[in-house]
Design goal:
With 392 residues, the chain is α+β, with helices and mostly antiparallel strands. The protein has eleven helices and 19 strands.
Length: 392
């Protein structure tokens, strides 16, 4: 692995571009003062891997729907109808997502760890910040695998076009409106949502932002804010949390979809992909595929493995054991009530200090941007964001 030191812009600069979560709770910088150098071949391999993985997810999603495997994925019953409706109608377009991958650098093969299909974080860092850091250090900003911004903008246009080709979007667009929402009091999520709002504005949509608690819902009329009706509602709030904690909202959104009064982004079917149990479905359908790690609902026999909760986040409630079931590393957390999956353990690339690097590749119609997280054996909410540069 090759790391190149860079100067991270000061906090005032970061906040000026909308990046407020620059310091971790332990008062250390969240953004690393180095970038990972990768080759153009490595960048191409990441791109091709996530494109292939998404096709596999789509095929496996059809298998889950046809065989009613929602219980196996831990899907709450009150969202099953919404998942089916969104899956069966292409107007429920998957806007953006992020694959977490092991390997891809230092000669290691790319392996899927999980798919953040519903509410992926690190969008601002990947699409805006790492580009700004290259420019601030006198490096060529185009020397990245990073067209996330434009890829998402094109995907907004596909909400209307419903096809690959977005030529002629202006002729089809009729002033449709998108309402963007996040929870109040979370700067990272609010900035991420407002970034998406900016991209949608540039795509040509009429947009507005509202905190989730201020949005109104009507089964017969749709989604409202300040008495204005919106055809699309983007919410940076996990579908599983809506199902578990906001049962009435889950019912209303299902009815709104049934009555074709609004389209929810990301679609409800992304909850299938978000469940880490989906990796077990993939392994059953594509056993020994070179991009996959063996995954089961029960402990795997005779190999090092990771136990994680199907809707866990940021490494919480994760346990790594060796082939003799000795615990190597573990984290507590708030997701203990969820079922576990057991995934073959694979070592991440490491630097000279022994810190691990996990690639995150965004997907918006196709693979579109790379960034890295750096931390220990289990990447948690203290892991650092590390940018990259493509060198030949």
């Amino acid at each position: 692995m090759k790391l190149t030191p860079i100067e991270v812009p000061n906090n005032a600069f970061l906040e000026n571009i909308g990046f407020y979560w620059h310091t971790d709770p332990d008062a250390t910088p969240y953004v690393a003062g180095e970038i990972v150098e990768i080759s153009s071949d490595e960048a191409d391999a990441y791109y091709e891997a996530v494109n292939e993985l998404y096709e596999m997810f789509a095929e496996a999603g059809e298998y889950v729907i046809e065989n009613e495997l929602f219980h196996e994925l831990g899907i709450p019953f009150n969202l099953v109808d919404a998942i089916k409706m969104s899956w069966e109608n292409d107007i429920h377009w998957h806007l953006y997502s992020r694959f977490d991958l092991a390997g891809g650098i230092d000669g290691r093969p790319i392996k899927l760890i999980e798919f953040n299909a519903d509410t992926p974080t690190a969008l601002f860092e990947t699409s805006i910040l790492q580009w700004a850091m290259l420019k601030a250090n006198g490096m060529e900003g185009s020397h990245q695998f990073n067209n996330v911004y434009d890829a998402i903008k094109d995907n907004f246009k596909r909400l209307i076009m419903m096809e690959d080709d977005i030529e002629g979007f202006e002729e089809h667009y009729e002033g449709w409106k998108i309402l963007f929402s996040s929870v109040k009091g979370n700067e990272e999520e609010e900035s991420t949502v407002k970034l998406l709002q900016t991209i949608a504005n540039e795509a040509g949509f009429v947009t507005q932002f509202a905190y989730m608690e201020d949005v109104e819902f009507s089964a017969g009329d749709g989604v409202f804010y300040n008495d204005e009706n919106y055809e699309y509602w983007f919410k940076l709030f996990p579908w599983e949390d809506i199902a578990i904690d906001e049962g009435e909202l889950a019912m209303l959104l299902t009815q709104i979809m049934h009555n074709q009064k609004a389209i929810i982004l990301n679609p409800a079917y992304t909850l299938m992909f978000q469940s880490k149990a989906f990796m077990k479905i993939l392994w059953d359908l594509y056993p020994n595929h070179p991009l996959l790690l063996e995954t089961g609902f029960e402990p795997l026999q005779g190999i090092a493995q990771v136990e994680k909760k199907i809707f866990g986040r940021e490494g919480a409630n994760t346990i790594i054991v060796d082939e003799n079931e000795n615990i190597i590393e573990e984290r507590d957390g708030e997701y203990a009530e969820f079922p576990s999956v057991f995934q073959e353990y694979v070592e991440l690339p490491t630097d000279a200090n022994g810190e691990s690097y996990q690639a995150g590749v965004f997907y918006a119609y196709e693979g579109c941007g790379l960034g890295f997280r750096r931390g220990g054996l289990i990447l948690d909410n203290y892991s650092k964001f590390v940018g990259h540069r493509v060198v030949n």
